[in-house]
Amino acid sequence: MAYLHVDHVSKTYPGVKALDDIVLEIEMGKVHTLAGENGAGKSTLVKILTGTERPTEGRVMIDDQDAVHHQHLHKSIAYVPQEINLFGNMTVAENLFMPFSRSHHGGLLFRRRKLERAAQPWIERFKIAARPGDKVRNISISDQQLLQIARACTNESMKILILDEPTSSLTETEVERVFRVVRDVVASGCGVVFISHKFDEMFAISDTISVLRNGRLIDTQPATMLDDRQLISLMSGQEIKTDARLQPEGSEGEVILQVDGLSGKGFEDVSFNLRRGEILGFAGLVGAGRSEVMQTLFGFLPARAGSARVEGREWRLGDTHHAIRNGLFYLSEERKYHGIFPGQSVRRNIGMPLFGSTARGGVIDARRERERVGTIVRDYDIKTPTLNQNITFLSGGNQQKAIIGRAMACDPRVLIFDEPTKGIDLRTKMEIYRLMKALAERGVGIILVSSEMDELRRCANRIITMYEGRISGEFHIEQASGNALVGAIHGHGGDGHAA
Amino acid sequence: MLRKAMGFMVSNPLSGVISVLAIIVVVASLMSENFLNSYNLVIIARALAFIGIITIAQSMLMILGELDLSLGAIGGFCGVIGGILMVRVGLDPWLAFALCLVIGALFGLINGLLVTLLRLPSLVLTIGMAGVYGGLNLVITKGVAITGIPADIGFLGSGKWFGLPVPFWVMLVFLALACFITLKTPFGRYMYAVGSNLPAAQMLGIRTDRVRIGVFAFAGFLAALAGMLMVARLGSAQPSIGDSWVLGPIAASVIGGVPTTGGIGTPLGAIFGAAIIGVIENIIVLLGVSPYWQSMVSGAIVVIAISLDSISRRYFRRD
Q: Could you say which of A499, B102, B110, B158 is the most buried, measured as most Cβ atoms within 10 Å of its Cβ?
């Protein structure tokens, strides 16, 4: 019998059946991947495994005991959330052992030295490139991710480790560091539940893959028995057309955005231009300064020098209001922190920039607002039960579509997408790619900042690379397959090819 | 039918605070026969008028995720300035009244400018500004009330209209205005946007600083209004007007569904919260609770009211 046994579990929320008769066995010493689109029920299942939610029907058996009635059994299930959830102003050692149990620092008083000595073996085992006394906000994202895993593993009663998209903000080399740690945990006899949207990662690490769709368990298979195509059709219930190429046609329009000598926090002297109907990709390592360039251009961050023109009109940088009025709009990679208004309805979220047409004499016309928002919800295929639904309860993909629809309502000439498909399932990803293509062909200039090379090659007409705050190369898509592009991202190979 | 009623109860954010108020009113009228008569209700309405105007102001700031702890000090200082203008300068009482409202708005504006331009936390800044306004008040008055306020404006404080005190009607008018602004205008939506997610509001090109400064100024205006109505009611400008206007309105707002973290709730809910506190304080006096115990008992009941609300919210949580 497996250590963790999910026995015909269903979970019903008012109006929604989130999980429907799930049967699952998680074994020790194996990596078990949960695959499924956004809204398939993975998060709800994880909440039930960790004991934060109780099943409406069915049982969760941990070590052959009924965990629904013995909550303490859930202590052996450790969970690492997708988002970094650490105390930035405290040290690596403090984060590792929080909440401090006496054994780690021996006694009533807080003893930093002893705590840091106790942390050293963990740091070595998990290959974290930091000292125990370093402040967590000063270490890299991948080290923070590893620290989160290490922290979960300090739980001595841990038998199962759940990793919720641990790689979504990591580059490929960093992913390998996380995987080495996962293999180490498995070798020590623990079971791992792994959640990801990236197929290559699933196949690289999993022993078993279970596919969820619309709250049902569709299939559980050994990873070796599946390939990409089968997994996609299991997850979506249909064949998804993954177009190889989604570049917009007719990208040779006139220059619509011109940026000259822009400098700001973390980047220096950035100049480029964007043509009407074109998708311009920005590639680079995490921390190369791409997001900073875009946020400065948009006026969210202050500019030190430089200028920008949309359709020949220049404006004063440093105020998002002016940027939007001049036709430039930026969609942040931080959907949650920079995009949605949590706790507010879909209608209020999307209706926010529409008052030019929905308010008359300073008063909002509720009927017009419902109509306008309703049109956007239909046009962008945003799945929501009603317009009054709290946007927090929409899936990530639908939130993203709501944000794009809202941005388009501002009628931008230039639209900047910053990692638009982070944490989004393949089907919605394809929808967003096609949407970008359609917008570009309607005459909008699009900038796509992405860490996924596949995404850039598939969508962009032209790719600019950045390295350590400077532009390190520019490539037409026909030249973008070679090593020169990868070299430029890593700072080798000079200026690349002149495009 | 019952199901539908329950659905409304759960979905309407005001249902919790209204039921608590209803329960307290029923209990109060059972406990004291002096509670439900027009004389006593007028007393409650008058007390609610002054604290209610401050509650409207504070709840609008709290929707933004801000606080202004100097509203009481602004109210008291503006009352004193009004008294000086009327009595010592001999200005027309109506002109002085209007001037004080403008001055109050200016004080609020100063608070808002300091909070936004210097990126200061409003909690700490307004503790300091409360000291400044309250201190200037004492410097000017030396703690002595200014008496001899012209009787022309007396009815604003102690007059009645349709059986209810005039200040209560004034409060209702501004409550309606506040609800209109927050719920029906783009400016109001921007307030919720700022309170719910400030960076996201900036990313949409909303002039977040202007929204915040605007609400601070409006709150200062309302504080001055409450102060001047109190001067009209007392017939003298007491320097201590507003001293008790600081914490009650914050508690009232939280009880009424406006958390200190901002983004949700309405001024209407906050007024119901203020009514709960007002009724509790009233019934304690009616029951003849020793004055030494009054503040402890009313404080404890406020804590219970907030806890009940929080527990019911968790129980009916929709997710």
A: B110
